[in-house]
Amino acid sequence: MVERQPSTSVITPPATCNFVLHNDAAASVFGMRPDTTHNCLIDFFTDPIYRSRTRSWEKNARTVVAQFRAACSAMPDDEGFQHVLARVKAASPEFAALWEERDIEDAGQIRKELDHPVVGLLCLESSVLKMPVRPDLTIVLHTPLDEANTAAKLEWLASPEGRRGVLYPVAG
């Protein structure tokens, strides 16, 4: 299901944020590579390639932390949650400061604007979808918005020609 999505998709456990599965479009758009943590929360705060591509990083950081806190509030003693929390707090002073604000926000939609090094501006709406048959997992679906010809750019990135153009992600 995830691989057939024309937009970018990632499956994660809500408390740990570790990628269980992602499609090629997500890897291309967000710069996912073997040398990253494969944890969407830690990478959001520490990966220089992801961060350099994200125009809306500062705006979205507060929401990302508040949504992570909400997802984990039902399981504060979960070891996976505690491990991720300790890692990201140690790796990112920005996360640690936002965490101390104690904001909580239910998972929902986030607008993301990214500067892709090959196709330029991408405007996406990120939606967190619960999986009733697997409540321990969520699907994060990034839907192209009408702006910046995003759908056509994602289609090109998913093509054989586009995949060749993004074999080696570069910053900015």
TrEMBL record:
InterPro entries: MLTR_LBD. Pfam families: MLTR_LBD (PF17765). Residues 16-156 form the MmyB-like transcription regulator ligand binding domain. PANTHER family: BLL4672 PROTEIN-RELATED, BLL4873 PROTEIN. This is MmyB-like transcription regulator ligand binding domain-containing protein. It comes from Streptomyces capitiformicae. The lineage of its organism: Bacteria, Bacillati, Actinomycetota, Actinomycetes, Kitasatosporales.
